[in-house]
Design a protein that fits this description.
The chain is of the alpha/beta class. The chain contains 18 helices and 26 strands.
Length: 582
């Protein structure tokens, strides 16, 4: 059949500004006539013509509610805008890291490569008819669109008056593998529905020593558990962990992807990954069942991860530091050395200490994976991470939850390679304790206040900036709250000058740095879909090995008290407690 192109008149919607992770709103907002179409056309209009006309783009996501409708709308708009072919993961499922890998690695039978992707996800936010939906555009390097592009998209959304769509193009059956070819005014248009997991698994096998991980998983002393939280990781878990690595199917929890994530919150942390936390012996109820040696979870779009040992939680900040410290010995991909390491500013300084000890290039960047991507494209960074459960490397340009799980399994396999028949395996806890003994411990917690009134949040942040004008007054205040806390030696609003392209990112979080290496950081987060989220990061460094085994809450208690009273959080928000403590 030959499809035709329709120009549809439209008017702008307020607030279509893509944040660090694209545009996120309630499903009901996206379901308004023209809402999604406006944003998609604004994106096409922001891209160079050669990345649209005759190009190949990927359209897929985490499978959340409204994804199937959105894929059809975007496909029809791609056809109308002169795109040559659209690649769709089967059932619209592709993890965010897999999309990045596919842009970078996949070559279709006709030799085509993708120039970019629309990723349909709201990451770790809940899904369902009354919950969240999201869309973001990734570029030809596999990474999120830079600010120069997202600013252009936003500017276009404010003036848009028409969009192009092939309304008579039939819906494509996204459950059936294969290429469907149509003809339009500019010639052929293909939709290629392909297997979600094949390309990604092939990439993982080129990075890790699957044989050594298989031996570890085959050891009767080692047990394993992975929780997909009913997100897109389930499309990879059985193929990766069971079929390729030999784990038992009973080691997989919640690995059937669901549009509403089974009614849960697909965020891999101690609050929301309840079933995994219980199974690993960290829950409130006591059980006679011995927990597995290793547990992990991924979020809705499988770019975040949580790593647990038996009755032991590994903080994301420690996780990236430990991966960096062990990568060269444990992971074949890094055998020739690390180019450099990087962390987001709110992430603890555990990685800094590793970089200093191993003489590695080190970078502290704003929150947002695109900043790591720039460093990686320039060959300056191999391993990076952020405290919000994101870890990754230069194999792609997104954080990667399953990669992080395989990295930990590789470290465990390496540490136990001569010990698989011994009495006791080296455990996750052993590895972390050894790391603290070598590098010191960064006690760390994050308090999230979600859906706070946006104006109140702005006032709170403005007050924290104002306080920085006099550190002597700040220290006087702090001494009244907790006399034993060290003095603040510097305070600022974090600003980053990109060493690659020279761009400057301002207002990236408010920092109070203490003389003993402690830090308080305050940030407004853009990942929620309603109201504002205030995040408070509290960190205490301890390099006396006799003091690295304290309860984290005890070690941090004085600084927590300072953070809450200095920010006047209850006064500004009316909240007596955070929504989530990590």
């Amino acid at each position: 059949m030959v499809f035709s192109v329709t120009k549809k008149e439209t008017t702008p919607f307020d607030g279509q500004k893509p944040g660090t992770s694209g545009l996120r709103k309630k499903v009901t907002v996206f379901q308004q006539p023209h809402y999604l179409a406006n944003f998609v056309q604004s994106t096409f209009n922001a891209l160079p013509a050669e990345e649209v006309k005759g190009a190949t783009i990927v359209v897929s996501g985490d499978g959340r509610y409204f994804s199937k409708d959105a894929v059809q709308i975007i496909t029809k708009m791609a056809a109308a805008n002169g795109v040559r072919r659209v690649w769709v993961g089967q059932d619209t499922l592709l993890s965010t890291p897999a999309v990045s890998a596919i842009i970078r690695e996949r070559i279709a039978a006709d030799g085509s490569k993708a120039t970019g992707a629309f990723i349909l996800t709201a990451s770790h936010n809940p899904g369902g008819p009354t919950e969240d939906f999201g869309i973001k555009y990734n570029m030809g390097n596999g990474g999120p669109a830079p600010e120069s592009v997202t600013d252009k998209i936003f500017s276009n959304t404010k003036t848009i008056n028409e969009y192009l769509i092939a309304e008579d193009l039939p819906d494509v059956d996204v459950s059936a593998l294969g290429v469907t070819t149509f003809t339009g005014p500019e010639g052929p248009f293909d939709v290629d529905v392909f297997d979600s997991a094949t390309d990604y698994i092939k990439l993982m096998k080129s990075i890790f020593d699957f044989e050594s991980i298989k031996k570890l998983l085959a050891s009767p002393k080692f047990s394993f558990c992975f929780d997909g939280l009913h997100g897109v990781a389930g499309a990879y878990a059985k193929r990766m962990f069971v079929d390729e690595l030999g784990a038992s199917e009973s080691s997989l929890l919640n690995c059937v992807p669901k549009e509403d994530f089974g009614g849960g919150h697909p965020d891999p942390n101690l609050t929301y990954a309840k079933e995994l936390v219980e199974r690993m012996g960290l829950g409130k109820s006591s059980s006679n069942v011995e927990p597995p040696e290793f547990g992990a979870a991924a979020d809705g779009d499988a770019d975040r991860n949580m790593v647990l040992g038996k009755r032991f939680f590994v903080t994301p900040s420690d996780s990236v530091a430990i991966i960096a410290a062990n990568a060269v010995q444990s992971i074949p991909y890094f055998a020739s050395g690390l180019k450099g390491v990087a962390r987001s500013m709110p992430t603890s300084a555990a990685l800094d200490v590793v970089a200093k000890n191993l003489n590695l290039k080190f970078f502290e960047v704003p929150t947002g994976w695109k900043f790591f991507g720039n460093l990686m494209d320039a060959g300056m960074c191999s391993v990076c991470g952020e405290e919000s459960f994101g870890t990754g490397s230069d194999h792609i340009r997104e954080k990667d939850g399953i990669w992080a799980v395989l990295a930990w399994l590789s470290i465990l396999a390496y540490k136990n390679k001569d010990n698989l028949g011994g009495d006791k395996l080296v455990t996750v806890e052993d590895i972390v304790l050894q790391h603290w003994a070598t590098y010191g411990r960064h006690y760390y917690t994050r308090y999230d206040y979600e859906n706070v009134d946006a104006e109140a949040a702005k006032e709170l942040m403005a007050n924290l900036v104002k306080l920085q004008s006099s550190l002597s007054d700040v220290n006087k205040l702090i001494k009244e709250i907790q006399p034993n806390v060290a003095d603040v030696v510097s305070a600022d609003e974090f600003e980053y000058k990109d060493p690659v392209d020279g761009s400057v990112s301002k207002h990236q979080g408010i920092r109070y740095l203490f003389g003993d290496g402690s830090r308080l950081v305050f940030r407004l987060s853009g990942t929620g879909s309603v109201g504002a989220t205030i995040r408070i990061y509290i960190e205490q460094y301890e390099n006396d090995s006799s003091k690295t085994g304290r309860e984290s809450s005890d070690a941090l208690s004085p600084l927590v008290d300072v953070a809450l009273k200095l920010s006047k959080i209850q006064e500004y928000t009316g909240r007596s407690a955070p929504t989530v403590i990590t």
